TrEMBL record:
The keyword Lyase applies. This is 4-hydroxy-tetrahydrodipicolinate synthase. The keyword Transmembrane helix does not apply. InterPro entries: Aldolase_TIM (IPR013785), DapA-like (IPR002220). One of its GO terms (molecular function) is 4-hydroxy-tetrahydrodipicolinate synthase activity. Keywords: Lyase. Pfam families: DHDPS. SUPFAM superfamilies: Aldolase. It comes from Micromonospora viridifaciens.
């Protein structure tokens, strides 16, 4: 049985675009609150209907408590629902993640995006639910995917509002996870940057993607056109989005955060001095030009 708070989040996020936000930092790794504010508010102005902070795009696992508090509070101040990424650090204990969940609740988060764990994910989600009382989105991430029976069990948890599916290019796994969400009457959320349009046709009814960390209108158009059954527009918008995804969500895949930050700077959302991802891998020569060329052609 789904808990009322989880049902409310499920219904609130349905057909909404949640932007998985970056966390812009300067050369020393510090967040400037004004830069952050402007960035988050700009995403909302441009079509993000909810914000997911401190998830993978926001490099949540790398930020300390003070930075996490700042990011969550500034996101909540935008007035849109805020989903907070919790966990994701190697070797972390459930108690530590529960403490993050409690702080997220204190700062007014609407829900949690729970990074996957290998060891007893159901007990992990249950502990967060009892500690913080915030509804959760399970995170079926290609780097640490859930086995189908595990995901089915997670989706039966009363505090789980839905699942964000991010299986990258595994269409079968994506379809199975979306179907599992429907069977459990939970929200099927696409996190499929490279299979965005198709994942909507496979049953996703909401989106939470790093592709919307910049260039938000492109992603917003696809989701809106599909939700409104304007299928001609959906096909055109989807092709635009796929062109953008092809140059941003590509090998080395971890470079996508840097690529979205380049776009954010080019769009004037953040200063150039805050557009470096300290955790980016080495990127090929010409990558930035390629990304900006495609992003500018929309
Ligand atoms: N999975 C990413 C978003 C990518 O689409 C995140 O957690 O930020």
């Amino acid at each position: 049985m789904i808990a009322p708070a989880a049902a409310a989040l499920r219904d609130r996020l349905r057909w909404r675009l949640t932007a998985a936000t970056a966390t812009p930092v300067d050369a020393t790794g510090a967040v400037d609150p004004d830069v952050l504010d402007r960035y988050l508010r700009g995403l909302v102005t441009d079509g993000a209907e909810a914000l997911a902070v401190l998830a993978h795009t926001g490099r949540g696992p790398y930020h300390d408590e003070a930075t996490r508090d700042l990011v969550i509070s500034r996101a909540v101040a935008t007035g849109t629902p805020v989903i907070v990424g919790v966990g994701g650090r190697p070797g972390e204990r459930t108690d530590d993640v529960a403490a993050q969940a409690v702080r997220a609740a204190t700062f007014g988060a609407a829900g949690l995006l729970v990074f996957p764990v290998d060891d007893d994910p159901v007990a992990h989600h249950d502990a967060l639910w009892h500690a913080a009382g915030l509804p959760m989105l399970a995170f079926d991430l290609y780097l640490r995917p859930y086995a189908e029976p595990t995901l089915a069990e997670l989706l039966r948890h009363p505090g789980v509002a839905g699942v964000k599916v991010a299986r990258l290019h595994d269409a079968l796994a994506c379809q199975a996870a979306l179907a599992a969400a429907h069977r459990a009457d939970r929200l099927a959320v696409t996190g499929e940057d490279r299979m965005f349009g198709p994942s909507l046709m496979w049953g996703a009814e909401a989106a939470l993607v790093g592709l919307a960390a910049a260039a938000v209108p492109v992603t917003a158009r696809v989701l809106r056109a599909y939700a409104d059954k304007r299928y001609d527009e959906f096909v055109t918008a989807s092709a635009d989005l796929d062109r953008l995804a092809e140059v941003t969500f590509t090998e080395p895949m971890e470079g996508y955060v840097q690529r979205m930050l380049w776009i954010a700077a080019e769009e004037g959302r953040i200063p150039v001095g805050h557009a470096g991802d300290p955790h980016a891998p080495a990127l090929p020569d010409g990558d930035r030009d390629r990304v900006l060329r495609v992003a500018g052609r929309r």
